[in-house]
Model the fold of this input.
Amino acid sequence: MQHIEVNHVSLVYDTPGGKVPGVDDVSFTMAPSEFLCLVGPSGCGKTTLLNIIAGFLSPVAGEIRIGGNAVNGYGQDRGIVFQDFAQLFPWRTALGNVTFGLEMKGVAKAEREAIALEQLKLVKLDKFAHSYPHHLSGGMQQRVAIARALAYNPAVLLMDEPFAALDALTRDDMQRLLADVWRETRKTVIYVTHNVAEAVFLADRVIVMTPHPGRVKAEVRISLPRPRDPLSVEFLEYQKALLRHLSEPSRADAQ
Done:
């Protein structure tokens, strides 16, 4: 059985100017522990689709299934990391942020703090457990957000351009860290990005989406050994292949 099934999902936004399609008849499946990247230009429905999978939006047609169960609203089988650094609670320490979900589940204090420290150690922030977000760099804050998303052991990790606001060097470090965390945890990951090199570095498979309306344009499996060398010829060839898919007009544009 596939871990995630996206079956003919469509969503339409009601706006003052009329109905605007968000995603249109999108289908794909994912195996357990697969790392999938969604790439495409702004307006192609990447974040909309992620929000449907998260349960924040309801499709007008189609369905999402995780582990065979239909998605009807948000559940703790899905951990979510956003781009915005403000996703952390500024009045809580790194440890307090990571324990939050466990606290909501009623986990005893000693147990939830032990779990949180383990997750902070996984993202190499255990020495900053008692620091507040404003004492942490952007990259460190995103590491706390990843630890928080992992703390209650969700089956699926959903990530919406989590490193887009970081400088280039920090983003490279965070990509390597996430690759290490994924190898350690083997979570099923759906990762939204505009960055083609990032997709090739992280993904087992990349889905290219096209806008107006948001549809799946192509799928590319990244058959490279890990850890990946961004300067290798093979890596650059995958980048070129994705860029070709992004630059070619879709059928809708061609008509």
